[in-house]
TrEMBL record:
UniProt xrefs under NCBIfam families: transpos_IS1595 (NF033547)
Taxonomic lineage: Bacteria, Pseudomonadati, Bacteroidota, Sphingobacteriia, Sphingobacteriales
Domain ISXO2-like transposase: 129-220
Pfam families tied to this protein: DDE_Tnp_IS1595 (PF12762)
Native organism: Pedobacter hartonius
Protein name as it appears in the record: Transposase zinc-ribbon domain-containing protein
SMART domains, alphabetized: DDE_Tnp_IS1595
Length: 220
């Protein structure tokens, strides 16, 4: 993503606003063959809103954007800044969160989180499957419960995690390759579907005893 732009001015001219950024992301993600993001639907037709950003499935009526279901979904930073930041990260040998914050006019804390997510995005850029020994794990991204006011704290729900946080499922190949995805949930169906797609058959899967991993026994 954005590797096709040789100069930052090319990027800015091609993607000057949120609409153009979303349409570019949609073209890279679906390549003209859009499929509903509801795991139980799979319909390939959708209405496009006038803003050119939102889509509505003609079947289940789910509304989504090109960000939905990606590491970009929960980010409040605009796609224009995301793409400029991604360009800077890809075209410099190294960039600190302090410098990225200055370049994008965002806080250093936001720049730090942006860098972490960009590393995941760049890790997912390659389409080849992971193979060999693969470590899988799930995590939940969001604010710390202890930092909330006492009347806004939420209770942990076994099997679901923290209901106010975003679940992320990751797969790490021994040797360094990493793929991680924002998911709607970490149930067995979701995890099995993602793992079957991104991990070569007969690879060795290393995981903990979480129930969501039980379905992998039949595939690996």
């Amino acid at each position: 993503m954005v590797s096709e732009f040789n100069f930052i001015l090319d990027l800015i001219k091609r993607l000057p606003d949120e609409k153009s950024c979303h349409q570019y992301l949609a073209s890279r993600r679906w390549n003209g063959y859009m499929v509903c993001l509801d795991e139980f639907c799979g319909n390939d037709k959708a209405y496009i809103f006038k803003d050119g950003i939102h889509y509505k499935c003609t079947c289940c009526k789910k509304i989504y954007t090109a960000r939905t279901g990606t590491i970009l979904e929960s980010s409040k930073i605009s796609l224009t800044k995301w793409f400029v930041g991604l360009y800077l990260v890809m075209h410099k040998k190294g960039i600190s969160s302090v410098q990225l914050a200055k370049d994008l006019a965002i806080t250093q804390k936001s720049a730090w989180f942006l860098l972490q997510r960009m590393r995941i995005v760049l890790g997912n850029e390659q389409d080849e499957q992971l193979e060999g020994t693969i470590e899988i794990d799930e995590t939940f991204v969001g604010g710390k419960n202890k930092n909330r006011h006492v009347n806004k704290r939420v209770k942990y729900s076994p099997g679901r995690g923290w209901p106010d946080k975003t679940p992320v499922f990751g797969m790490l190949q021994r040797g360094g390759k990493l793929k991680a995805y924002v998911v709607d949930n970490v149930n067995m169906l979701t995890i099995t579907k993602i793992t079957n797609y991104h991990v070569r058959k007969y690879s060795d899967i290393m995981s903990d005893g979480f129930n969501g991993y039980r379905g992998l026994e039949r595939s690996f």
